[in-house]
């Protein structure tokens, strides 16, 4: 028996909201757990950024709007839950510019280059955060961290992009059936 158009729209809306909620919860959990891990290196600002796996996943499997919603919710609630309210402006600026960059790149690059899209997004993310920090602290010398942050962005961006790319190659069709 075929569903009425209204029921189909309602069903799609419920699936979309549920997908956003589940992915936000996953991203938020990763974000809060990662904030509890001591820094891996003595250079401020370097962290894995594993919650970005969820944002990139949402960008590929859902929509830019849904990825945006997940990012905003994750960063806002993550800053509150981790007790790091001051990081809100840094994370939000970096995350939004990263997302915008990845959205643009995904229009022109095939999914097999998702690792490269993620690396460029990570570099933009770190650059935006340093720019915000320089503005807030009135310390332009902070840009001396950029070479280290770019190296970190290449490593973490590649990992995040490859993780999502691997997920797509192994379970992409199944995930599309579940989400759509």
From TrEMBL:
Protein's name according to its UniProt entry: Heptaprenyl diphosphate synthase component I
Membrane-spanning intervals of the chain: 20-37, 49-73, 85-108, 114-136, 148-168
Keywords, sorted A to Z: Membrane, Transmembrane, Transmembrane helix
Pfam family, one: Hpre_diP_synt_I
Protein species of origin: Monoglobus pectinilyticus
InterPro entries: Hpre_diP_synt_I (IPR014535), Hpre_diP_synth_I (IPR010898)
Keyword Ubl conjugation: no
